[in-house]
Design brief:
Elements: E1 2-6, H1 10-22, E2 27-32, H2 44-49, E3 66-70, E4 74-78, E5 83-86, E6 91-93, E7 96-99, E8 103-105, E9 117-118, H3 122-132, E10 138-141, H4 145-155, E11 161-165, H5 177-188, E12 192-196, E13 200-204, E14 207-210, E15 215-217, E16 220-223, E17 227-229, H6 232-236, E18 245-247, E19 258-260, E20 265-267, H7 275-290, E21 304-307, E22 314-318, E23 330-336, E24 341-348, E25 351-358, H8 364-373, H9 382-385, E26 406-408, E27 413-414, H10 415-423, H11 429-436, H12 446-464
Parallel strand pairs: 1-2, 1-7, 2-3, 7-19, 9-16, 10-11, 10-16, 11-12, 18-20
Antiparallel strand pairs: 4-5, 5-6, 8-17, 13-14, 14-15, 21-22, 22-25, 23-24, 24-25, 26-27
Helix pairs in contact: 1-7, 10-12
Cofactor: [4Fe-4S] cluster; FAD; siroheme
Domain BFD-like [2Fe-2S]-binding: 407-453
GO molecular function: iron-sulfur cluster binding; metal ion binding; oxidoreductase activity
Length: 465
């Protein structure tokens, strides 16, 4: 079989890895428009903040036997001849084609938008850092997840930053109004000036102009106004396209020889913009095209959004906007604005259907497990927010955590799997990551993985003693 993958990002690179792990004989060719080796796009905000280097966020090198063509864009798909055509005039035949083209940044249609830098790729990150070296201030346009991360990263370098958002509160897709307010106050304490409910009408050389006529100074303007799936290649080839490339439970498009995964794919009406669903989809497609599991199906993902800005801890999952007056739901909520803490549980039929955890949240792992599994809640729900209360669920420590508990959401790695690879000789973070891929997604599980490794080492020392 000749497999061609269009896209060498986190979805495409993972697919090639998954296929090669199942079948050593399939001929795999991967096309990547970027000239760089695949890297973890999720962790670009860490590069912007200076807490990680570009080398540290690279994905592991692809396996032997994978032909990777960097800096070569695919320009057309000939479904009749089963070939893809590239910008350099070449043709590559395929038996199976997988589209992993990802998304592109949304650039607002305002005068001067070309003066700003959209924050999406490693090259964008380098351009921002180069501009930041001489700029006296920055304006970030867009208060979604990426905009918050970008603003915090630049502020962490000591630069005055203003974060602008059109909606009434930050991250309105994931957070309710109160959580958005607490997040804004937490960012303000870290040096980010937040302005919500404002509309940008022009980007000038000296800053950003608002609909009110006010001009906010800033030589560096970063755009984080959302992304849209890159579907033009699929549309031009006559594939069914909605917001993304429409796929079924096999991740197959309207052409049975062509699949789509990651941010360009639309499954059951949903386009997922997070890495965990993309990697789940890659595993399903690898199972199907290699025959490793012909019954494999993708049934959708239960999303957990994690903010990766330094000094700001946030997890949001499920139906976060429901309130007590929504009917048939119970909401447990706690706010301590002075400490930047907001905790909210949304419960229906004794099951966790949504949660927001901002600030210190010792039970985030437990709540993520309960949400992901959809099982009944244990004991008093208040104990899930305050583990020190009597009858509360124990905090997320290795002692109380069952082996079935999922530690790394992005790669579906359980405590038991970490224990098994530790017992097989993986005794540090790098070895465990290499064996399980834990910590290589959004990176938010890093402290939990380190805690389990440390606990296992302590247990071994006690036995020896």
């Amino acid at each position: 079989m000749r497999l061609v993958v269009v896209g060498n990002g986190m979805a495409g690179a993972r697919l090639a890895d998954e296929v090669r792990a199942r079948d050593k004989n399939i001929e795999i060719t991967v096309f990547g428009a970027e000239t760089r080796r695949p890297y973890n796009r999720v962790l670009l905000s860490n590069v912007l903040a200076g807490t990680a280097s570009p080398e540290q966020v690279r994905l592991p090198a692809q396996l032997e036997g994978v032909t990777t063509r960097l800096g070569v864009a695919v320009t057309a798909i000939d479904r009749g001849e089963r070939v893809v055509r590239t910008a350099d005039g070449a043709e590559q035949p395929y038996d199976t084609l997988v589209l992993a083209t990802g998304s592109e940044p949304v650039v607002p249609p305002v005068p001067g938008a070309g003066r700003a830098i959209a924050f999406r790729t490693m090259d964008d990150c380098h351009r921002i850092l180069e501009a930041a070296a001489t700029a006296t201030g920055a304006v970030v346009v867009g208060g979604g997840l990426l905009g918050v991360e970008a603003a915090r990263g630049l502020a962490g370098r000591g630069m005055p930053v203003t974060l602008l958002h059109l909606a009434g509160h930050l991250m309105e897709r994931q957070l309710d109004a109160e959580a958005g307010l607490v997040l804004g106050e937490a960012l303000a304490g870290l040096g980010v000036r937040v302005r919500t409910g404002v509309q940008v009408t022009a980007i000038r050389e000296d800053g950003v102009e608002l609909a009110t006529g006010e001009v906010l100074p800033g030589e560096l303007v970063v755009l984080a106004c959302g992304v849209r799936p890159m579907v033009s290649l699929a549309r031009d080839a006559g594939l069914e396209v909605g917001r993304g490339v429409v796929v079924d439970d096999h991740m197959r498009t309207s052409d049975p020889a062509i699949y789509a995964i990651g941010e360009c794919a639309q499954h059951d009406g949903t386009v997922y913009g997070l890495v965990a669903p993309a990697w789940e989809q890659a595993a399903v497609v690898a199972d199907l095209i290699t025959g490793a599991d012909r019954a494999a199906r993708y049934r959708g993902s239960r999303l957990v959004t994690r903010l990766k800005a330094r000094s700001v801890e946030l997890a949001a999952m499920g139906e976060t906007h429901l309130s007590d007056d929504a009917g048939a739901v119970e909401v447990v909520r706690f706010t301590h604005r002075a400490r930047g803490i907001y905790r909210k549980l949304v419960i229906r039929d004794d099951r966790l259907v949504g949660a927001i955890l901002l600030g210190d949240a010792p039970t985030v792992g437990t709540l993520t497990q309960l949400y992901d599994r959809g099982g009944p809640l244990p004991g008093d729900p208040a104990g899930l927010l305050f583990p020190s209360l009597e009858h509360a669920t124990p905090a997320d420590t290795p002692v109380f955590m069952p082996d079935s508990a999922r530690v790394c959401e992005c790669n579906n790695v359980t405590k038991g799997r970490i224990r098994a690879c530790w017992e097989a000789g993986a005794r540090d973070m790098a070895a465990v990551a290499a064996a399980t891929r834990a910590t290589t997604g959004c990176g938010s599980c890093r402290s939990a993985v380190a805690g389990i490794i440390g606990w296992l080492c302590e247990q071994e020392e006690e036995v020896r003693a």
